[in-house]
Amino acid sequence: MGRRSFGLLFLLVVLVAVCLASIAIGSKEIPLSGVWHGLFTPTGVEDDVVVRELRVPRTLLGIAVGIALGVGGALMQGHTRNPLADPGILGVTHGAALAVVLSIFLLGVNSLVGYIWFAFAGAMIASVLVFLLGSAGRGGPSPVTLALAGAAVSALMNGLVSAIVLLDQQSLDAFRFWQVGAIAGRDLTVLTQVLPFLLAGLFIAAFNAPGLNAMSLGEDVAKSLGVNVSRTRSLGIFAITLLVGGAVAACGPIGFLGLVVPHVARAFTGPDYRWILPYSALLGAILILFADIVGRVVARPSEVEVGVMLALIGAPFFIFLVRRKKLVKI
Questions:
Q1: What's the count of helices (H) and strands (E) in the chain, helices before strands?
Q2: Contacts 24+ apart (CB under 8 A), 266-270
């Protein structure tokens, strides 16, 4: 077995261990016997309800979202050739946020399940708009034009969100709950609604990996190898939209995971995206569950949402990355 294959197997073992810890550990202390009872021989007591209806759906959603954001981040850094890119650079996050705020402000939607489809639709619309703007001109879409279009669309949508939430207190209160980024309080209904989109995004991402390897050598080299650069980039953007749009719709914006995970994966795999993507998927699931477990423990009996915990982890890494890559000078 090769080193990278062994690494994947090791990450799978770690993920299983973290999943078990996610089910066993929480703000409410449940003994291991109670966890076992709740999983396999439930009788409806309080501990069984906590395990089966709260912690198991939370863990499954964390796995799905972690995989989606990890793979989405790796694709985004590959297609933009920017080591500091994260999935939000295409405006996906801000598009979802604007759609959520509009659904609250105009339609009075006030349930998490109700937000999902609006958030996903907003993410898709924003991504399409960025791609169209980035594709305008003779050269078609390029890493630079996509990044600039994403920054412009994100700024516009962020301004609209700020204007609406300042005008309407109800929109502000509901938006703050969604904006923090969390996997708590979601049942399996949320996961089942976004899972088909996440699976489709993962399938497209796997198909996109060989072409992305060629494009990492330069677009001219990729074309000489027979790669259709425009089609490869379009598929990559579509996969990012499905993965990140579904994750953001389900849990709200969760920052830094899509930035941090691909760099850790690349340290083990090298530049081959056929390995970076599965490593990023497993590392993303492990990191989000680990952050969620820590958030449950550090503020008992309350909890710190996973979006906040990942920001605490990701911000120092971001600073380290900028300094190591010498992208800024002090």
A1: 14, 0
A2: 268/4, 268/7, 269/4, 269/7
Domain annotation covers residue 288: yes
What separation in angstroms does the CA of 123 have from each of 29, 33, 75, 135, 225? 38, 43, 17, 18, 33
Reduce the secondary structure of 185-213 to three states and give it as a string: CCCHHHHHHHHHHHHHHHHHHHHHHHHHH
| Assigned token pair, 283 | 């590392």
Query: Is 330 within the bounds of a domain?
Result: no
Residue 12 forms part of a structural domain: yes
Asked if omega into 262 is within 30° of 0 (cis), the reply is no
Q: What is the pLDDT along the chain (330 residues), one digit of tens a residue?
A: 578 889 899 999 999 999 988 988 877 777 777 788 777 777 777 777 888 888 889 999 999 999 999 999 999 888 877 777 776 777 888 888 888 888 888 887 776 677 788 888 888 888 888 878 877 766 666 677 777 888 888 888 888 888 887 777 766 676 777 777 788 877 788 888 889 999 999 999 999 999 888 888 777 777 887 788 888 888 888 898 889 888 888 888 887 888 889 988 988 888 899 999 999 999 999 999 999 998 888 877 778 888 888 888 777 877 776 676 544 443
d(CA 35, CA 41): 10
**Identity of the residue numbered 58:** R
Kind plus residue range of the DSSP H or E element containing 280: helix 273-298
Give pTM, 2 decimals: 0.87
Q: Confirm whether 275 is domain-assigned.
A: yes
Spatial separation of the C-alpha atoms in residues 235 and 205, rounded to whole Å: 8
At 137, which CATH number?
A: 1.10.3470.10
